[in-house]
Amino acid sequence: MAVFVRSALAISPQNTFEEHQIPEQPVIYTDYFQNILPDFKTYFNPIERRRMSRIIKSGAVCAIEAIQQAGIEKPDMIISGTGLGCVEDTEKFLNEVLTSETSMHAPTAFVQSTHNSIGALIAVRYQCHGYNVLYANKTVSFESGLLDALIQFRDKKAEYILLNGFDELTQENYNLKKRAGLFKSERITNLDILSSNSIGSMPGEGTSSFVLTDIQSPDNLVRIDAVEICYSLPDQNDLESWVSAALAKEGLQTSDIDLVVLGNNGDITNDTIYKTLTNNLFPESVHAYYKHLCGDYDTASAFGLWFFAHAMKAQILPDHCILNKKRARMINRVLLYNQDHFKNHALILLSKC
Amino acid sequence: MEMEELIAKLKEQVIEQLNLEDINPEDIDAKEPLFGDGLGLDSIDALELIVLLEREYGIKINDPSEGKKIFASIETMANYIKENQNK
Amino acid sequence: MTGCIYITGMGIISAIGDNVTQNLESLRQQKSGIGPIKILQSQFKNDYVAGEVGHTNRQLAKIAGMSTDLEYPRNTLLGIIAVNEAAEQAKFNVSDTIRTGLIAGTTVGGMDKTERFYYHLDKNIDFIQSHSCGSITEQIADHLGIRHYVSTYNTACSSSANAIMFGARLIKQGLLDRAIVGGFDSLSKFTLNGFRSLFILSETPCKPFDKNRTGLNLGEGAAFLVLESEGTLQITGNSPICVLTGYANTNDAFHQTASSENGEGAFLCMNQALKSANLNPDDIDYINLHGTGTVNNDLSEGMALKRLFGHNLPLFSSTKSFTGHTLGAAGAIEAVFSVLSLQNNFIFPSPGFEVPMDPELIPVTRTRSFPGIKNIMSNSFGFGGNETTLIFSN
Lengths: 353, 87, 394
Fold this sequence. Notes:
The structure holds 3 protein chains of 3 kinds. By secondary structure, chain B is mainly alpha-helical. Chain B is built from 4 helices and no strands. In chain B, 52% of the residues lie in helices and 0% in strands. Helix content of chain C is 34%, strand content 19%.
C-alpha cells in the first residue's frame, strides 16, 4: 500500500508560496528568520480575517491551497503538528492575565491560542466532520502526524488526508529564548550557520500543508514509503543500527539511498551527529540540508518534506542545499533524518513516483 | 456627548476591538444589524463588545445573553450607553 | 490490524483522591472534590469553585518521590504520580523486548511554571524549556525510562482520549507492544481567566444536564492507563482489567468554541465508536458524558444522545460534578472512572442534579451497583469541534 504526496504548499522565510517552487538562491537572514507572507486579503474578507493571527492565516491559506491544488472537494481527515501552537495569541492573553487579572479580558486571544485552531477552521470551512487531531510533541510533532496518516491509509480509513505542520516565531519568544542561550550568541547569517563552529541555532518559522493520498496519479509529487520515530537511543552505534533496520524493513540497504537530507541547524554538537551518521552509513550518497532556508523550529521537517518532495518531482537539487560535494544523476530514494539533542529521532523515506 | 458623536466614536472602537481591518466607520450603518445578517458577527464578538463597554464606558454586563438586544446595532449600543453610563 | 487491547494498569490523581483507591472511595461515597480554590494564586480565587488537587507542588513532589527543590511544572508532578501508579499495577519494567510508548494529552503543558516566572526571568528562565505540551510528556517519559515512542496530543478537552485511542491503534498496527496512555492538566491563571472571559465558568458547583446549570467548574489532575496486546499479556503475565473495544474521533465543524445545536459531531462520533466496537446502541450499559454543565455543551450532547439512542437511552451521568472539567486530562480521568465502573459493577452519578433540562434526559443521581455491567461509553468533546468517544468493556 503506497501513500503519495498529491500537493504540497509552504509559507516560509523563502519565496516558496508565491513561486510554488524550491528557491534557487536563499533569501538572506541575520539572527533569525521570518516568513514571507502572501496577500491574505485575497483569501479572506475583513470579517473572516478579524480574529485570525498571522499563524492562523498562514496555516489556513496553505491548507486551502493544498486542497485546491490536490483537486479535491475536501479532505477526509485533517492531521496537524506543531511544537508551540499559536504563540502570538498565547503571549497576548498571558501578558494580559499577568498584568492585570481584575479587568475583564477579551476572549479572542484565549480562544485562538487553542493549538488546533487551524484544523478547526478548515473543518468548518469545508464542513469536514472526519478525524481531526493535532500533535504537539516538540520536534516530532509533524512526524507523529505523518505516522498517524500512514496508519489511517493502511487501515483504509481515508482517501485524502490534509497534513499540516506549523510553528511561528514572535519577537517576544525570540527575545526570551535568546536570553536563555538557545540561539547563536554571535551575529550570523543563514549562509554561515554550517561554518559557525559554535553551539546554538538560528530560529525560524513556517507553515506547510500536504494533501496525502493512496490513489495513484501522475499528479502525485512523491511516494512516502515509511516514517520511523524513536524517542531515545543510547549512542551513535544504536542510531546507525536503527537507521539500517528501518531501511531493511523496506527491503533497502544504505547504498540504495541517493540523497540523505539532514536536520543540520548550525549547532555544532547537533550537527556532529549528522556528520558521523552520513560518513559511516551513507558515504556515497548526496547529503543535503534545508534549515538554512527556514531556520530551526519544531516542525521544520515539514518544510524539509515540502522542499524535497518538489525537488524529487522536478529532479532538481540547488547547490546551496548540498552538504558534500556530490551530485546524483537521479534522485530516486531520499531519506530525511532529524533529531534534537540526540532525542526524537525521526526518519521519512521517500521515493520517486 | 452628543448621540452623533457617540455613534461615530463607537464605530471606531468596534472596528478596533473586533480587529476589522479595512473596514471604515463610514462602511457601517448605525442601524445595520451587527449579528447574523449585516456585519455577520458571532457570539465571541458579543463577548468582545462586553469588554469594550466595560473598558471604555464603565458599564458592566454580567449576563452575556443580554448582549443580543444591546448589540443589535451601533445605534442600540449607543442608546444603552447613554442610559447606563455613570450608573 | 487485529487483536484486543487490554487494560492492565491505571493510575490517577484528581480533586477526589491521590490514587485509584481514593478516587473510587469518593465516587462510591458521592463525595465531590469541587470546592474553594486554595493553591492557585488568582484574583478570582474567591469568585469560583474548582476541582483542585489539594496539594502544593512541594507536596506533590514528595508524593511523586521527586526532589522538592527543583521547580517542576505542576503537570509533570501530577503526571508522574499517575503514571507511577499505572506502571506499578501493570508491572512495568524498562525492558528491550516490550516496545513501549508513552502518549499523553494536555492543553496547558508547563503553563503554571511559565506564569510564575514570565515576569521574573532573573529568578528562573528554564521555564522556557518546560512550557510546551511535549516537554512535560518527555519529563514523564524520562522518569519512566521510555525509549521507543513518545508523543503528545493537544486537541483541547479531547486530548487524553485521543492519546488513549492512538496508543491502541499503534498496538494494533504492530508498532508498539504496550502503550502507557493518558493525560494531565493543572489549573492555571491562563485557563481560569480564559474560561471566565467566555462567561462559561460557574460560581457554584456545576450541574450537568440540569435546567438551571450555569457553566463549568475547572478541575485538574492526571490519569494513565496501560494498554497491552494479547501477545504482550503472555510476556507480562498480567491479568487484564477490561478491554478497550472501540473508539472514534470526529469534528463538529460548526464553530471555534460552540457546539452545534443538533450535536452533529457528537452524534457521528458516538455512532462511529459503536461501529468500531461492533456494538449496537442498546449494547451500551452506561455513558460517562462529557457533560460540562455549560448551557451549550449539554444541549448539544443531549441532542446527540437522543438522535443516537432514541427512547432507549442507557444510564448516563457526568462525573465532572466530582472532579470539575480537567480539560486535557478529562478523557483519561473519565476513562479510569469507566474502568472502575466495569471492575466494580458500579455506576457513578452526577451529584447536585435537580431539575432536568429535558424530561427525557435524566442522569443517574446516586451511585448504584450494576451487576453484569458490560459496555461503557465515555465522551470527551473539546473546543474546535474535537469530539472523541471511547468504549470500554468487561
